[in-house]
Design goal:
Distance between the termini: 44 Å
CATH topology of the largest domain: Rossmann fold
Shape: globular
Number of helices: 10
Structural class: alpha/beta
Order of helices and strands: EHEHEHEHHHEHEHEEEEHEH
CATH architecture of the largest domain: 3-Layer(aba) Sandwich
Number of strands: 11
Strand order of the largest sheet: 1-11-8-7-5-6
CATH superfamily of the largest domain: NAD(P)-binding Rossmann-like Domain
Length: 292
C-alpha cells in the first residue's frame, strides 16, 4: 500500500509555480494577481481564504482579499464582482462559498467574467470542460487528476467508480475521468439512490469518494489492489484535539488502506491539492493560457 501524499505534492507544485513566476517577472512580465471576496465570518471559509492568501505568497502572486459583512445585499455584491471583472490588474478571482441565504450563489457565479473564473464554476467553463476544450477546471477534480498523474496510476481503460454527483466534485470528476485526454477510463457514478452500490465499488480499479459521509467506504466495498481517492472532509467531534474536532474522510481508512495499492489520507491528501490547483489556474489566467 502506498500513501498518496497530497501535502508534499502540493508543496512541490507551488515551488514549480514560484519558479515560473520568477522567470515571468524577470523577463518583464506581469505578476499574476488573484483576488478573493469573502462575505461574513464562516469559520471554514475564513480558514480556506487564509490558506489561499498564504498559497499566493508561496507562489509569488499578488493577492487581494475583499471582506464584506453578511448584511451586504445581492446587488452590492454583484457590483463588487463587476468591479473585479473590469479591473485589468486582476487576472483571476473567486467568491468564497457558501454565501448568505439572501444571495443567489448561481447569480453571483454567472456574473463572474468566465475568463477570470479560476474556480471553474461558471457555466461557460463547465461546458467547455464537458466537451474537452481548454478552460479552468475546478480545483478539486483538477487536483485529483494531478495526483493520479504524478503517482503514475494507470487510468486508461480502468473501471472508475465515483461516489457522489455534486457540481463541484462528482459530476466534473466523471466528465474528466471518461475523457480521452484525462482519465480515459470506464466511469460509473453512484449516489444515495444507487442500487448495488457495494457491488459497483467492488468491481472498481479506482474509487473516488465524494459523498460527504464519514467512513462510508468500508473494506468489504474495495477489491484488493484498488486505488482509493478520499475527497470527504467532515468535521467530527474529537476531545483529544485542541480544536475539539478532527477531519474525517468518506473512507474508513484503517480497514480500507491495507487492501489498496494507493490511497489518499484525510487530512493531507486531496485537500492541499485543491488550493494548489487554484494557484495553477491563476498562473494560467496570468499567462492568458485559455482566453485572450
Amino acid at each position: 500500500m502506498q500513501l498518496i501524499d497530497g501535502k508534499a505534492t502540493a508543496a512541490q507544485i507551488k515551488a514549480e509555480i514560484a519558479e515560473e513566476v520568477k522567470q515571468i517577472v524577470e523577463a518583464g512580465g506581469k505578476r499574476p494577481h488573484l483576488a478573493a471576496i469573502l462575505v461574513g465570518h464562516d469559520g471554514g471559509s475564513e480558514t480556506y481564504v487564509r490558506n489561499k492568501v498564504l498559497a499566493c505568497e508561496a507562489c509569488g502572486f499578488k493577492s487581494t482579499l475583499l471582506r464584506f459583512e453578511d448584511t451586504i445585499s445581492e446587488e452590492e455584491l454583484l457590483n463588487e464582482v463587476e468591479k473585479l471583472n473590469r479591473d485589468e490588474d486582476v487576472d483571476g478571482f473567486i467568491v468564497q462559498l457558501p454565501l448568505p441565504r439572501h444571495i443567489s450563489e448561481q447569480k453571483v457565479i454567472e456574473a463572474i467574467d468566465y475568463r477570470k473564473d479560476v474556480d471553474g464554476f461558471h457555466p461557460i467553463n463547465v461546458g467547455r470542460m464537458a466537451i474537452g476544450l481548454p478552460c479552468y477546471i475546478s480545483a478539486t477534480p483538477k487536483g485529483i487528476l494531478e495526483l493520479l498523474r504524478r503517482y503514475h496510476i494507470e487510468t486508461s481503460g480502468r473501471k472508475c467508480v465515483i461516489l457522489g454527483r455534486s457540481n463541484i466534485v462528482g459530476k466534473p470528476m466523471a466528465q474528466l475521468m471518461m475523457q480521452k485526454q484525462y482519465g480515459d477510463a470506464t466511469v460509473t457514478v453512484c449516489h444515495s439512490r444507487s442500487r448495488d452500490l457495494k457491488k459497483e465499488c467492488r468491481e472498481a480499479d479506482i474509487i473516488i469518494a465524494a459523498i460527504g459521509q464519514p467512513d462510508f467506504v468500508t473494506a468489504d466495498m474495495v477489491k484488493d489492489g484498488a486505488t482509493v481517492i478520499d475527497v470527504g472532509t467532515t468535521r467530527v467531534p474529537d476531545a483529544t484535539k485542541k480544536s475539539g474536532f478532527r477531519l474525517n474522510g468518506d473512507v474508513k481508512f484503517s480497514e480500507v488502506a491495507p487492501k489498496c495499492a494507493y490511497i489518499t489520507p484525510v487530512p493531507g491528501g486531496v485537500g492541499p491539492m485543491t488550493i494548489c490547483m487554484l494557484m495553477k489556474n491563476t498562473l494560467s489566467a496570468g499567462k492568458k493560457e485559455f482566453y485572450q
